[in-house]
Every structure is written in C-alpha cells, then in structure tokens.
C-alpha cells in the first residue's frame, strides 16, 4: 500500500518502514483535514513557503537572542500580511493557521492575540456602533489589539479583578483605572510591544455600585508614533519558559477616559443615563474564552502529533543494542518499552484532533443558537470544553515529554525541537483558565447532571450516558474476540467509572454539608475527587468521539484506525484500571486481559507506526526538528545544526581567553 513519503536518498530504515504500510496515507491525511482538497491546499502552502526567501532562516532561531527572534518573526509576519493571498485563501481559518505555522512557527508572532482573542472578543461581544468603526480597521491591520484580562494579582478569579471602569454620566464616558500594583494587567500576549489597542477587562462601577467584570476597548499607543498615550504604562514582562517571540505584557492605566460605546455591549449594556441591562445569559461575556478553549484542542492535538512524528521517525532511524545475540543492532522502535511510550501518543494525537472536530460542530451550533436568542447549548459546551482544555493540555504535555525522553540524549538538545515544543505547549495547562480550576467547572456541571439523572430529568449531550442503566459487571474479555463489541465493552466500563465517580463525589460533598460545613467549604474538601470525576468524564467524551469518527471513516482506512482505537481504548482502560476495579465492575483478570491486548496492539501497529505519523502530514518546516526530518538523514543534519552555534564561530572563545586560559596558566606555574 502506498505511503506517499517514500523518496530516493532517504534513510533506508525509514524507507523500509514506509514499505510495510497497509493503508493509503493520503486517504488518512485527507480524512484528518476534512477532504482531499484541504490536504492538497496545505501542501501547496508548504511548498510555496519553503521556496520563498522571505521566510528563510539562515540562522536557526535556536541560536538567536530573543530580540533578534522577534525581529525575524515580525519581518515574516509583515510578509504574510502583505503577500498572504499568494499562498492561501486568507479568509479560510485552517489555511491561515497552516500558513502561519509554516511561515512563522509556534513561538508567537505580533498578531497572535489580535487574531486569536482581540478580534473574536470584538466580534462576539461588541455592539454595532463599536464594531462598525473598529473591526474594519482591525481586519485591515491598521490597528493591532491584545486581550488584557489577567492581572498581576488575579487571573483565575475574575470576580476580584481590580482594574475599574467607572461610568461618568456627565460626559458619557468610562474612566478606566489601575488602582494598585497588583491591578496591573500582566501576561496578555502581544500587549507589551506590538499592540496599540486592547480589550481590557475591568470591574464596572455605576453610581458607586460594583457590577462585575466587563470588557472595554482601550487605545494604548499613538497610531502614528506607536508611543504609549499619556497615562498609559505598557511593556514586556520579560523572559519566560517559552513563547520567546511573544511580547507578553504589563499595563497600567491612569484614569483613562473612553467613550460609552467602547464598552463591549452586545450582551450587557449601559445606557447613556447609566442604566445597566444584564446579558440574556450571565456568562455570555466569557464567550471568547469558550471559543479559545475549543480551538486550543486542535493546536494541542497538533503539538502532540509533532512530538509523536519526531519520536517515531527517530526511533526507526536510531539503532542501538540487540534484542537477540548474534544479530545486528535493532531499530529502537523494536523495543516494547519504546512502543509503549510512543504509540499511545500517536493514538492520543488522533483522538484529540477527532474530538476537536466534534466540538467545533457543537461550537458552531451554539453560536447559531445565540444569534437566534437561544443560549441553551452554552452550559454543556462550557462544561465539556473546560474539561477538554484541561485533560488535553495535560495529556499532550505528558505525551510530548514521553516522546522527548524516548529520543534519549538528542531529545534534550534543541535540535530535536522537543524542548521548545514542550515549553510552548505546556503553557496551555495555565492559560485560558488554570487546569485545576477549569476541571471544577466541569465537575459543577456533573453534580447537576447527577441530580437530574436521579430525578429522571432529561440530560444534555455530554452527560446523556448518566441516564444509562449499568449492567453491574463489565463485559470486557467476554465478547469472544468481536472487536466492535470489545470496544463497546470498554466504553461502557469507562462510562460506568465516570458516572460512579461523579455520584460518589456528589455523596461526599453532601455528607460534608450534612456535617455542618457550608456548601463552598465542603466543596473544597472534595475537589480532588470532583476533578477526578471531571477528568474521567472528559476522557469518556474523547473516547466516544474517537470511536464515532473511526466507525464512520471510509472503509480504506477503517482497519488501521480501528487498530489505533483498540490501542487507545486498551491504554485508557489500563491507565484508569483503578477506577474500574474500585467497585468490582471489572475484575483483576479483566485488567490482565486488557494489558495483554494492549501489548498485542503494540505489535499490530508496529508496521504502520511510521506511516501513521507520516499521515499527520506535517512538513519539515513545521516539525522544526533535526531528529524528525522526513528523510531520516539525522546524523549529518545534527552535525550541521551544531556547527551553527555561535560558540563555534571561533575556535577559542573570548571567555576562555580571558578567564580559563589564565587560570590554567596560573595553576601550571604553581607547580
Ligand atoms: C483561535 C484559536 C487559538 C488557539 C490557541 C493556540 C495557541 C495560542 C497560544 C497562546 C495563546 C494564549 C492566550 C491566552 C489567553 C488567556 O489566558 S486570556 C485569560 C483567560 N482567563 C481565564 O480563563 C480565567 C479563568 N477564570 C474563569 O473563567 C472564571 O473566573 C471561572 C473560573 C469560570 C469562575 O467564574 P465565576 O466565579 O464568575 O463563575 P462561577 O461562580 O464559577 O460560575 C457561575 C456560572 O457560570 C458558568 N460559567 C463560568 N464560565 C463560563 C463560560 N465561559 N461560559 C459559560 N458559562 C460559564 C459556570 O458554569 C456557572 O454555572 P452555574 O451557575 O450554572 O453552575
Ligand atoms: C503563555 C501565557 C499566555 C497568556 N496569555 C494571556 C492573554 O493573552 N491574556 C490574558 O488576559 N491572560 C493571559 N495569560 C494569563 C493566564 O490566563 C492566567 O495565568 C491563568 O488564567 C491562570 O491564572 P493565575 O495566573 O491567576 O493563576 P492562579 O489562579 O493564581 O493559580 C495558581 C494556583 O492556584 C490554584 N487555584 C487558583 N484558584 C483555585 C481554585 N478556585 N480552586 C483550586 N485551585 C485554585 C491553581 O490551580 C494554581 O495551582 C497567559 C498566561 C500564559 C502562561
């Protein structure tokens, strides 16, 4: 079967792997990106960008200072903006995303938050009077914006943000102010140096009454000189774990006046005479966060895919040690531990991307509903995107780190691309709502679902399975080798565990309440259990999404996807075995059965491993990894990469000349 990656001159071990492929890699790629046309369009973009001198990096960013990296990124950003339509349909979200990944990379760029949050916030939350003015200019990139919500003292607990917006009826303006040091906006991407506007989240005050957090458009810098406007202090927060090319910023506002229309008033409103009208749903103002959390799934699925590609290809190329005496050294991909480390990451990357597709459909349906005045889909989507954002970012982070370690010493080098990838990706556990906190949002929803299920009330989409009657004992290992029924038995077992954990957490919560604790204090006493239930529920949702996509996939790729799904489900069940065992739903024997099936899956997938990662269709530019390159010619490339280190510009470094040589000389003369 064809793997389209085979080319002359490639590493022979990689070619050998590609020849054992049992499916058409292009079919799988097309399925992953929605259609053959989408796949071809991605490849055209890659080809054009790779050949374009505006996007060439004579010196890899690994060897540049942060300032130089930002300069190089800004230059490429300008080229993307001015010449974007030469490469793709600039109105197509996925084509633009791919263009940016190819042309600029993942470490941040001057317009990341402009497109990622500033524009979505204005489009989703601002009223026509404001959007008519600012959106055309923002889309035309006459202005650049950031989303400034988090403060030095508060990020999670939005209710206690300190920045104030006080309505002045006399002038029909809001006065925006940073009252304390901890009220400074701190962290917002692109706020420090690039943006001249921001959507700023402030506590709204009318007639001395605190109404709560609302968003306001504020101009930060002069449109001509880009200097901060009077009363505005703005800058970069300094180096951080990754996102080197993003100017995450700080901001202090000294009683800045903005017109009334600058409040984002699509949902909540303040009339000219200062009358406040709340939104039709209390949390519609938080809509931008739901949007980003939903879309983060795609980015994080792709991040994990990158790591899986690097680790799998490198493990096919790397030979080290022997499994049996008297035979040549083996490809490290033949070690069972290596497969057990890497293959679940491949499966999880597919599962995350497929889950994203489901969520995207639900998000679009919700937006359509809101436009027609219905908010009934919001609570379910908020609850499941909160859980998914937490589970996926954590899962991807652990997976990337596994892949990095699976590459041995070279995985620790920036040449592998994996340390930087991890740095960028792991930020997702924190931004857009810290994971422990977001899981609690899911858990709150589960508690309501438990109550509804007990009362026989209708259950919404993500928790519908709470209404199923459990069979009491798992069918795992008792389906006579019927794969479809085995998959269903595993899904049923996971659903049983999620439901049980939710019910038990609810009982623990209630018990503490009966013991005299307030609801809130009692909640804090059971949050570990609450978050556990939320995690398992979310993993059930992912498993169901993956299962749905696989069972409805074209017949040509269904067998390999079914193998991958088997691995995914076996791995998930073994990983969560304690939950399945705890109430006796599964027996120890059933868990042993799951483990043995998992080891069989590793062997089954082995011949298709390289082809499965090839099907993610990430180019060498996107991978940005010497170890993961498509042609597998790793060792020569590793040497050429190291030669570019600035430490190698001279044979004797000034630091050596100045300190180390005299020290050695002194020591010698002491003898
Ligand atoms: C375009 C795609 C981009 C892809 C990205 C890829 C990579 C890009 C790289 C980098 C970009 C980084 C960008 C980062 C940006 C940011 O980080 S912006 C700042 C984000 N900040 C947060 O997320 C803050 C987290 N805090 C909160 O969300 C809230 O404070 C809270 C924790 C939810 C608590 O809020 P609150 O106290 O007000 O509410 P509760 O009492 O807990 O709940 C009341 C009810 O409201 C419901 N609720 C809460 N939030 C929402 C929501 N967003 N939507 C709908 N409903 C919501 C909650 O469930 C309660 O419901 P109930 O009363 O029925 O139980
Ligand atoms: C790379 C990056 C980019 C960012 N970009 C932006 C941006 O563009 N715009 C923006 O406005 N912000 C941005 N942020 C900020 C980000 O949204 C916040 O850092 C995040 O929401 C977490 O809030 P915090 O920092 O206040 O953490 P804290 O809430 O202080 O969390 C610290 C610890 O306390 C725990 N904790 C807090 N509350 C609870 C609770 N209720 N229950 C249990 N545990 C709790 C947390 O779980 C965590 O372990 C960015 C952050 C990063 C890292």
Automatic annotation (TrEMBL):
GO cellular component: a single term: peroxisome
InterPro entries documented for this protein: ACOX_C_alpha1 (IPR055060), Acyl-CoA_ox_N (IPR029320), Acyl-CoA_Oxase/DH_mid-dom_sf (IPR046373), Acyl-CoA_oxidase (IPR012258), Acyl-CoA_oxidase_C (IPR002655), AcylCo_DH-like_C (IPR036250), AcylCoA_DH/ox_N_sf (IPR037069), AcylCoA_DH/oxidase_NM_dom_sf (IPR009100)
Residues annotated as domain Acyl-CoA oxidase C-alpha1: 286-447
GO biological process: ascaroside biosynthetic process; fatty acid beta-oxidation using acyl-CoA oxidase; lipid homeostasis
Record domain Acyl-coenzyme A oxidase N-terminal: where: 24-144
Residue intervals of the Acyl-CoA oxidase C-terminal domain: 487-665
Cofactor: FAD
Chain sites annotated for binding FAD: 150, 189
Key words of the record: ATP-binding, FAD, Fatty acid metabolism, Flavoprotein, Lipid metabolism, Nucleotide-binding, Oxidoreductase, Peroxisome
Pathway(s) served: Lipid metabolism; peroxisomal fatty acid beta-oxidation
Entry GO MF terms: acyl-CoA oxidase activity; ATP binding; FAD binding; fatty acid binding
Active-site residue list: 432
Localization terms from the record: Peroxisome
Family: Belongs to the acyl-CoA oxidase family.
Protein name in UniProt: Acyl-coenzyme A oxidase
Upper taxonomic lineage: Eukaryota, Metazoa, Ecdysozoa, Nematoda, Chromadorea
């Amino acid at each position: 079967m064809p793997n389209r990656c085979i080319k002359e001159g490639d590493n022979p071990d990689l070619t050998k792997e590609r020849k054992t492929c049992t499916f058409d890699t292009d079919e799988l790629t097309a399925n992953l990106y929605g259609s053959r046309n989408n796949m071809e369009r991605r490849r055209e973009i890659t080809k054009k960008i790779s050949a374009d001198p505006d996007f060439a990096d004579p010196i890899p960013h690994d060897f540049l200072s942060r300032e130089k990296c930002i300069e190089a990124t800004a230059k490429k950003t300008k080229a993307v903006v001015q010449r974007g339509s030469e490469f793709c349909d600039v109105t197509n979200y996925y084509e633009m995303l791919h263009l940016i990944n190819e042309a600029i990379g993942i470490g941040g760029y001057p317009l990341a938050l402009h497109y990622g949050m500033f524009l979505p916030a204005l489009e989703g939350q601002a009223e026509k009077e404001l959007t008519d003015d600012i959106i055309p200019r923002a889309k035309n990139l006459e202005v650049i914006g950031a989303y400034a919500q988090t403060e030095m003292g508060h990020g999670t607990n939005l209710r206690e943000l300190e920045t104030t917006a006080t309505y002045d009826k006399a002038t029909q303006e809001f006065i925006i102010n940073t009252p304390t040091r901890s009220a400074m906006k701190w962290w917002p991407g692109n706020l420090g140096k690039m943006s001249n506007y921001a959507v700023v989240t402030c506590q709204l005050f009318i007639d001395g009454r605190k109404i709560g957090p609302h968003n306001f458009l504020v101009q930060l810098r002069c449109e001509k000189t880009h200097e901060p406007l009077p009363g505005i202090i703005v800058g970069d927060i300094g180096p951080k774990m990754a996102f080197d090319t993003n100017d995450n910023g700080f901001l202090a506002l000294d009683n800045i006046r903005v017109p009334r229309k600058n409040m984002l008033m699509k949902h909540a409103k303040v009339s000219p005479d200062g009358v406040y009208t709340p939104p039709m749903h209390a949390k519609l103002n938080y809509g931008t966060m739901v949007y980003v959390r939903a879309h983060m799934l795609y980015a994080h699925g792709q991040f994990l895919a990158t790591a899986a590609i690097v680790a799998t290809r490198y493990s096919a190329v790397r030979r080290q040690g022997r499994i049996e005496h008297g035979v040549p050294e083996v490809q490290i991909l033949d070690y069972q531990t290596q497969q057990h480390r890497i293959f679940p990451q491949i499966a999880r990357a597919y599962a995350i991307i497929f889950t994203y597709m489901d969520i995207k459909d639900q998000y679009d349906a919700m937006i359509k509903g809101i436009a027609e005045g219905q908010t009934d889909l919001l609570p379910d989507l908020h609850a499941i995107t909160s859980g998914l954002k937490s589970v996926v970012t954590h899962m991807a982070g652990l997976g990337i780190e596994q892949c990095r370690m699976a590459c041995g010493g070279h995985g620790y080098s920036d040449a592998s691309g994996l340390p930087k990838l991890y740095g960028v990706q792991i930020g997702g556990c924190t931004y857009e709502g810290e994971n422990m906190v977001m899981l609690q949002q899911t858990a709150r929803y589960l508690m309501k679902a438990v109550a509804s299920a007990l009362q026989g009330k209708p259950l919404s989409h993500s928790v519908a399975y709470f209404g199923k009657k459990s069979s009491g004992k798992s069918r795992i290992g008792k389906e006579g080798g019927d794969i479809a029924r085995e998959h269903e038995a595993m899904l049923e077992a996971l659903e049983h565990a999620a439901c049980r954990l939710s019910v038990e957490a609810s009982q623990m919560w209630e018990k503490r309440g009966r013991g005299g604790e307030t609801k809130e204090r009692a909640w804090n006493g059971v949050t570990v259990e609450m978050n556990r239930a939320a995690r398992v529920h979310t993993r059930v949702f992912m498993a169901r999404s993956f299962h749905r996509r696989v069972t409805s996939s074209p017949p040509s790729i269904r067998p390999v996807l079914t193998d991958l799904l088997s691995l995914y489900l076996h791995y998930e069940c073994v990983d969560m075995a304690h939950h399945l065992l705890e109430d006796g739903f599964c027996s120890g024997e059933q868990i042993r059965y799951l483990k043995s099936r998992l080891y069989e899956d590793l062997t089954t997938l082995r011949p298709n491993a390289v082809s499965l990662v090839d099907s993610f269709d990430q180019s060498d530019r996107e991978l940005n990894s010497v170890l993961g390159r498509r042609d597998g010619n790793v060792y020569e490339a590793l040497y050429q990469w190291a030669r570019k280190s600035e430490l190698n510009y001279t044979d004797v470094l000034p630091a050596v000349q100045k300190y180390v040589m005299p020290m050695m000389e002194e020591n010698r003369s002491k003898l």
